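Anyone have tokens for Phosphodiesterase? Sequence:
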Amino acid sequence: MRRGTRAGMTATTPSAVERAAAALARLRHARLLHPAGRTFAGEARIWGTPGPPTGVPLLDLPGRWPATIRLSKGVPTPGGWPDVLGVAVRLHRDPEPPVDLLWSSSGAAPVLRNLPLPRRRFTGTYSSIMPFRAGGRRLFLAVLADPESPDLGRGLAEAGAAVAADEPRLVLAVASAVGRWRPFGEVRLDDERGAAEDAALAFDPIGNVPPGLRLTGPLARLRDDSYRGSRRARGAAVSRAARRG
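Reply: yep, here.
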């Protein structure tokens, strides 16, 4: 009964974190997190996890979906100054709900996977920062630079120019807390969307997790409330995926 009562209250009463996030987003007239960005259409191609399966269908089984990709700067700093860079991908899996995956620039080594690291260029490793749970295991997801792909360059303007000139690719990978990255697919960027579409786009990294994965604990609740407050302040609607909690 207590859990049900709390869930019902959460659905109607914003938490203190959500209210604070909404106030800050209204103050800056933009997203609370990663306000400066560019949005692109593209495609995700999944070929499956090499080696032992993870038990997560989206990672283990071949698939192909239209995708919306957003490259962003976290603070943001001016021009090509160092910043915590972001990559967000929405997989459109009609008639199933979409999947939202978000990554921040980080280190590739196990000890650096949960630490956001400032960077000048849209290259290198982007980690989910927070680990996912798949059954009893912890998994990190990552986006890695493809050495055979055109470079996305430094800053958002150069990234937009790179997509306009070619079809850059990013590699999708998974790893345990201490294991090596195992590529399981790729994302291609092929068409930039307008500023209005970028402003209206609203990701839900907690509610729109891939089936078979989950984010739990205080940090997951903090992230959920922060994104919820930011969306509420912008009047942005979440895509039609079922909410979890």
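The two ends are 15 Å apart (CA to CA).
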